[in-house]
Write a structure and sequence with these properties.
566 residues; 7-stranded antiparallel sheet; 36% helix; globular
Length: 566
Amino acid sequence: MSDQVKEIKTKPYDGQKPGTSGLRKRVKVFQQEHYTENFVQAIFDAVDLKGKTIVIGGDGRYFSPETVQTILKIGSANGVAKFIIGKDGILSTPAASNVIRKYKADGGILLTASHNPGGPNADFGIKYNVSNGGPAPENVTNKIFDKTKTISSYKVIELPAIDLSKKGFVTYGPSNVEIIDSVSDYLLLLESIFDFPLIKNFLQSRADSFKVLFDGMHGVTGPYGRAIFVETLGLPESSVQNAVPLPDFGGGHPDPNLTYAHELVERVEREGIHFGAASDGDGDRNMIYGKGAFVTPSDSVAIIADWAAEAIPYFKKGGIKGLARSMPTSAQIDKVAKKKGLENHVVPTGWKFFGNLMDAGRLSICGEESFGTGSDHIREKDGVWAIVAWLNILAYANRQSPNELIGIKELLEKHYAVYGRSFFSRYDYEEVSAVGAQSLVDAINVHISTGSLASTSHVSKSTGQKFNVANVSNFDYTDPIDGSVSRNQGQIITFDDGSRVVFRLSGTGSQGATVRMYVERYVPAEAGPAELNKDTQEGLKGLIEVALQISNLPEFLGRDKPTVIT
């Protein structure tokens, strides 16, 4: 029989532990004999998908096409009834979450390493999402990991590869396969959320004075950007760049920040573009940048939360159930929640924590400082959603003030005048020694356990500012929905003026260790425009110096400068 199930003998590989964003390794690791097959089989061993429907998609990075075929072989052999696959294996992470929810699929396998580089010598990833469209919770990823440690065989049905470039229905052994347009369902979703006629009218009427540039960074969102900005909003082709998804992202690093999205930043400044935006490899992150105006992710989610119920139809109709941020994200959104009387949550890094609150009807808008912003329309962060949200808000604000052109800079200044400003920056130290990184963590833990930093004073040599340590702690979180406890989610040094520094080891890299240092200093609205509108690094200079001095980070990591500053 052509659909005869074969059982292939194998042995476990060490270290196939998926994090909140799945299993990420170098491509060459996934290309080892049986390595990818082991992990895919472990998903089917951990989650009963016999007779069920699953979605397959990804960011189109190197090694994706063959892995889609591997999932078909193994999934069909394990009894999957139906596969829904994005054309060419392409689905942005937010689009995949939407497809899972819209078609009531039982789960999804996403082939992405998010914002990490792609190519034969770069990164690959496999991530499992559950039926709510969100990342698998820890009890599921732990079960998958357990299965990888004991696997002795995997099942396959060997059939010719399916042509992923043709939309329509085919069969693969006993399974049905539907190949869908990668963009159309997601575009319909956004059109149901935002006021596209208002945005289009604003952009068309201000065509000479308000220019837009979207940068897909050769990641998955290029086709989505073209469908939205060119085909739907009627902007010229020049309003999108790097819009063709490439397996190696054009040799770039598809992470939308000031360092890696420099092509966008340079063109915005050179051409005086009022609204620039970029998204990452798999489409769940975003950066907003206009001429002379960079929006931190912390400010971005706060401004969206502030305007949403007034400007965005989805929230006008359904209201705002609550707000939330990840712990390292600045407290700017907290100020909005307090003023508007909204429930507010502070959770560990990882979108799954937001998903629990959304499913319980207690959260509408949320964000992470790592350029992730989103709402309860899906269960993933959504870069393109955030970009269109900003355009919707700007179009609405300009309709309210027809005699004044309100751009990104003006919107930020108006926000700070009401709420004050949390100056915020993140220092990333990538691919550092794992031993050095752990030594840094251990040293801060000693301060936490002994209280040796409490009540100590530290003076910045360059600014003369004095910072008094109020407390040093580890962030622990008890989920209010399921009662699960997440410990040691970041080390926090808090100062008596409310400033704080957070240190975290990140799990999103594929090798070495990544240490992130987050620095935040709040300036109240009463301080006035001169203080509120300072350059971020100027506003934080003294605190950054003190943070590096207290932690001895340069000595532990052997780095004088971070890899990336955002």
